[in-house]
Design brief:
It contains 1 helix and 7 strands. It is mainly β. A hairpin with an 8-residue loop joins strand 3 and strand 4.
């Protein structure tokens, strides 16, 4: 019973969010960061590349930590360490590079352009037009 929030970005920089539950989320289980998967899972044609993610408590996934477990890793720079000075190292809690049921959010890169969605009813433009009349 895996539930994921997917953030999908395209080559132009646009991103969308999708939520996958139960059977829709199962194809992602066991994949590692950097792997490609079919985008038809989310209703797109092309490939999705897994680029990152985090678990329910916000611990980020890291490509150089193997497995799906949480581990304390000595970091010099990169994902999970923002304010390190030159020569400084910190031991921080990181999640491994394998997708498991404990993962809450996944980041993906789509190899094409995402379709443009029409604005929903009750958007800002319609509300301002109603006030003018």
């Amino acid at each position: 019973m895996a539930n994921f929030k997917l953030t999908i970005s395209d080559i132009k920089g646009k991103s969308i969010s999708k939520e996958l539950k139960d059977n829709d989320a199962n194809p992602f289980l066991g994949l590692q960061l950097g792997n490609d998967t079919d985008a038809s899972i989310v209703g797109l044609t092309g490939k999705l590349k897994l680029t990152g993610g985090s678990d329910k408590s916000g611990v980020p996934m890291r490509t150089d930590v193997h497995g799906a477990a949480r581990k304390r890793v000595l970091l010099v720079r990169g994902v999970g360490l923002q304010d390190a000075e030159y020569g400084q190292r910190k031991r921080k809690l990181m999640r491994g590079n394998t997708v498991s049921e404990e993962i809450y959010q996944l980041n993906c890169k789509f190899d094409g352009e995402l379709p443009v969605e029409a604005p929903s009813e009750g958007s800002v433009d319609e509300k301002t037009e109603d006030k003018k009349e």
